[in-house]
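Write out this protein's structure.
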Amino acid sequence: MPDTATASATEPILSVRNLHKSFGSTDVLKGISLDIRKGEVVVVLGPSGSGKSTMLRCLNRLEEPTSGQIIFEGEDICASKTDVNSIRERMGMVFQQFNLFPHLDALHNVMLAQEKVLKRPKEEAERVAREQLARVGLADRAEYFPDELSGGQQQRVAIARALAMDPHVMLFDEATSALDPELVRGVLDVMRELAQGGMTMVVVTHEMGFARDVADRVIFMEGGYIVEEGAPEQVFEHPTSERTRAFIGQVAS
């Protein structure tokens, strides 16, 4: 008789099956399938327009899939009866733009969704907010407003805000691409620490060093398809697809 605990441990936390997404007559995703396991860090690479961000936004239904199936913690999140807000509470997302409320300081930006969505009491929301700001290295910036923070600090506030909701998976959509180069490292360091702490992460990025160092698996997308996937050393050192080889050569040069 199989060990139930062992079997459940190997079950993917997130499964995508034959995912398609079209905008009008334009097919952006053309049958994406992948499994993501608990604690895994999956980095998604590919040229602009390959469908990376669209796939990520479909995972928590910020974009509605045209067809296909997305199973998150055993639940088909594309089903009509699905509580999408419940899904998004468990699937944190960090965008390219920080999307902070300019009239709220860092502390209250991190508190707001806890109070409104999770219905946490103010005292608990503040305690969690301060813990998460400390986690991203901003304990001393809690009372600063967004326009008093650098872009990198604002992005770290956005990460703290997502973490304060106790997500089971974190999605990062080009989280460093709007930052000046000298500010990128601080955000990537926070993401590295999350990965080392066992957070399940799906990361769309052009940061090759991060992908090499942190990813358990790298996925290369082009033209709405997954062209290649594997361990970082396999994808970077021995890509099987000519398209992957050309992309890595171009980015590395």
